[in-house]
Amino acid sequence: MRVIRRLSIRARITIGSLIVATLFFAAAAMVMRDQVASILDRATVTLLKDDAAPAIAALENPTMDAIEVPGHGQLVAVVRPDGAIRQSTLPRPLRSELYHLVDDALSPKAVTAGGEDWLVLSQPVTTADGTWHVVTARNEESSALVLQSLTNGLMIAALVLVGGFGIASWLLATAALRPVNRMRRTAATIAAGPSRELLPVGPAHDELSALATTLNTMLTEQRAAADRERQLVSDASHELRTPVAVLQGQLELAHLSTGDADALLGEIESAQLTVRRLALLAGNLLELSRIESGGLGGSSDWAGLSAELAEAVDRARVTAASDATIDFDYGGPLDTGDWVPIDAHDFGRIADNLLSNAVTAVGDVGVVCARLDASAQAITLSVFDDGPGMPEEFMPIAFDRFSRPSQTAGHGGAGLGLSIVAALVHSAGGTVRLENRPEGGLVAEVILPFTATPRRDDPSRRCRTACPSD
């Protein structure tokens, strides 16, 4: 068994086909030989009856004076009721056994006499004088020769057929595995160096075509992941270059200001701000990597998400300008039977980023409102602001890494907030969109589906003045 496992697929298919073909042709040859043997036996019995027919007719017809003499090659013996032989053309070895051959069973007997095989049939004939017996015999040598010749022919034919079947199996396996060899050569080329080539997909809709399609999908996804990783490294290197250069300059200035305590303190404080920006950027990059690697887990119910939104609003109020108004409301079920496939902490990250962008957009005086709704299929988080909105040309790339609209470029953000929001929402199977409001400002809408029995919407609670109406 271990030796077979080490063979190639083509060799194993050929060996298996040869075994099946050998068993099939051997069984077919045995059945055919048995059928021919049965036919020969029936033909011999028929000849034995034909040989005995004239003698039986003479015995059954009392008007006939004598029994006809058997023809050439006919071996017939007529035995009287008292056991005496009336007439016989049987050879001497059979004639000496004639007493044992007389039988009323009407079934042929295989007898070996004088070194030869015979088939003997004894037929009783009842007359006025008693029961006569007509015994006929046929030599089995001719039948044996026919069977032997047939057996040899069948063996030769079976060997030829098995050999041809093996060659055909080898050729068919080679043809069937040819697409696999092409796939292997292409895979070796892809593994040898950078290549955008895909595995060849044959025109047939078979298992190999399905395998090639699946592998091509995997290759495409892996290449896309590698491209995203390279782009992330490139973007991160570009974004880190500036703060690192600024930090280096600040440290050099601090070194030059060692004799001036006030100047040295100012340079240290500036360096601390730069370090915070670097730490924030590194943390956001790690967060994106965690999300895209599928490291998220957990789920939350309605109560957990509404409580997390309230905490996010409180955090936004702490960081917002003193004259900015930040409000929130919710409408949905009051029980906690449904759940959403996102952790409450990750939902808080979504709310934090959207509220932070909205607070930045409204500036010192403005209104921001967050609303959490629930329908039968999903929950919806909407964050509204009455700021200047977002440039239409920036909308298609708003969720790309390190993308920032021109009006917020000076606020110190790295442009990763919306990327994190999109990654978190998509990992939970939801959608996110941005849209400028007709009355001014921007709305960010996040839809997260339920993954349990849906609950009916509870529209009894509505947003206050700062939120748009349904």
UniProtKB/TrEMBL annotation:
<feature type="transmembrane region" description="Helical">
    <location>
        <begin position="154"/>
        <end position="177"/>
    </location>
</feature>
<keyword id="KW-0547">Nucleotide-binding</keyword>
<keyword id="KW-0597">Phosphoprotein</keyword>
<feature type="domain" description="HAMP">
    <location>
        <begin position="174"/>
        <end position="227"/>
    </location>
</feature>
<keyword id="KW-1133">Transmembrane helix</keyword>
<keyword id="KW-0812">Transmembrane</keyword>
<dbReference type="InterPro" id="IPR050428">
    <property type="entry name" value="TCS_sensor_his_kinase"/>
</dbReference>
<dbReference type="InterPro" id="IPR003594">
    <property type="entry name" value="HATPase_dom"/>
</dbReference>
<keyword id="KW-0902">Two-component regulatory system</keyword>
<keyword id="KW-0808">Transferase</keyword>
<dbReference type="Pfam" id="PF00512">
    <property type="entry name" value="HisKA"/>
</dbReference>
<keyword id="KW-0418">Kinase</keyword>
<dbReference type="InterPro" id="IPR036097">
    <property type="entry name" value="HisK_dim/P_sf"/>
</dbReference>
<feature type="transmembrane region" description="Helical">
    <location>
        <begin position="12"/>
        <end position="32"/>
    </location>
</feature>
<dbReference type="Pfam" id="PF00672">
    <property type="entry name" value="HAMP"/>
</dbReference>
<dbReference type="InterPro" id="IPR005467">
    <property type="entry name" value="His_kinase_dom"/>
</dbReference>
<dbReference type="InterPro" id="IPR003660">
    <property type="entry name" value="HAMP_dom"/>
</dbReference>
<dbReference type="InterPro" id="IPR004358">
    <property type="entry name" value="Sig_transdc_His_kin-like_C"/>
</dbReference>
<keyword id="KW-0472">Membrane</keyword>
<dbReference type="InterPro" id="IPR003661">
    <property type="entry name" value="HisK_dim/P_dom"/>
</dbReference>
<dbReference type="Pfam" id="PF02518">
    <property type="entry name" value="HATPase_c"/>
</dbReference>
<dbReference type="InterPro" id="IPR036890">
    <property type="entry name" value="HATPase_C_sf"/>
</dbReference>
<dbReference type="GO" id="GO:0005524">
    <property type="term" value="F:ATP binding"/>
</dbReference>
<keyword id="KW-0067">ATP-binding</keyword>
<feature type="domain" description="Histidine kinase">
    <location>
        <begin position="235"/>
        <end position="452"/>
    </location>
</feature>
<protein>
    <recommendedName>
        <fullName>histidine kinase</fullName>
        <ecNumber>2.7.13.3</ecNumber>
    </recommendedName>
</protein>
